[in-house]
Amino acid sequence: MSTLAKLTSSTPQSPKFLGPMQVRSTLARIAAEQLEAVQNEVESATQKAKSLIAGRSEIDLTTRLEPASWSVAECLDHLTQTTNAFVPAITSAIVTAPQLTMNRPLKTGALTKLLIQNLEPPYRLRFNVLAPLVPRQQDFYLAWSAFEDSQAQLKKTMQSASGLAIDEVSIESPVYARLSYNVYGALRMLTAHERRHLWQIEQIFKTLDGTQAYNAS
Fold first, then answer.
1. Which of 4, 16, 59, 133 is 20 to 30 A distant from 85 in Cα terms?
2. Which residues of 173-206 are buried (b: 16+ CB within 10 A; e: fewer)?
3. CA-to-CA separations, 92 to 87, 89, 190, in angstroms, rounded
4. Is residue 166 within 8 Å of 183, Cβ to Cβ?
5. Residue 131 burial by CB count (10 A; 0-12/13-18/19+): exposed, middle or buried?
C-alpha cells in the first residue's frame, strides 16, 4: 500500500486539546514545582517530628530544661498556634490571587527572605513571642493531635494555591501588625519556622540524653 493510501485509509484522529487544569499546569510549571517543594517541606516537618518523639517518655516530652524554656509539647503547641494564626489570612488571600499567565518562578520578597534566613536553624537571632502564640498546651498528646491537624490544614491550603500568582497577593502579619508578606513568602516562612523549632526539639533531647547519661554514670 502506498503512503498516500495508508494516510487516506487510516482512522482519523481527533485533535488533542488540553483541559483547563492542564493548561494552568503548563503555564505554571516552575511555580508548581516551587509550591510542591513547600508542601514537601510541611510533610517532611511532620515526619521528622514523628521520628524525634518516637520512643520518648511522657516526661521527656513535657520537661522544661529551665523554668522559662519550652518543653517539646510546648514547642509543638507554638507551631500549631502560629500556623492557625496565619492560615485564615492566607486562605482569604489565595481566593483573590490571579491566575499565572506565564511560566515564571514565584517571588518570596526581600524582607521575607531576610526573615526566613534568620528563622532557619541553627539560629542565632531570637524573637520575642507575642502573647497569642505563646504555648498554652502542656499535655503532649493533645499538643501532638493539634499539631497534626494544623499540618494537614496548612498542606490543604497550599494545594488550593495551584496555578495562582500567590506572590501578587499579600497578607498583613497576624503576629507583627506593621509587617506584610506575599502569600508565597508567608508559606515559606512558616516552613522555616517549623524547621527552627524542630531543631529546638532536637537540642532539648540532646540535653536530656546527656543529663540522663551523666546521672547514670
1. 59
2. bbeeeeebbbbbbbbbbbbbbbbbbbbbbeebee
3. 9, 5, 17
4. yes
5. exposed
Query: Tens digits of per-residue pLDDT, 92-143?
Result: 999 999 999 999 999 999 999 999 999 999 877 677 888 889 999 999 999 9
Tell me how far CA of residue 80 lies from CA of 6, 39, 42, 52, 209, in angstroms: 65, 16, 12, 17, 26
Give the C-alpha separation, 197 to 151, whole Å. Answer: 14
C-alpha cell belonging to residue 65: 530544661
Show me where the domains of the chain are located. 27-216
Residues 6+ apart with CB under 8 A from 36: none
Distance CA(122)–CA(128), nearest Å, equals 17
Q: Are 163 and 88 in contact (CB under 8 A)?
A: no
Q: Within its chain, how far is the Cα of 9 from the centroid?
A: 56
pLDDT tens for each residue of 130-186: 888 999 999 999 999 999 999 999 999 999 999 999 999 999 998 887 899 999 999
Predicted TM-score (pTM) of the model is 0.84
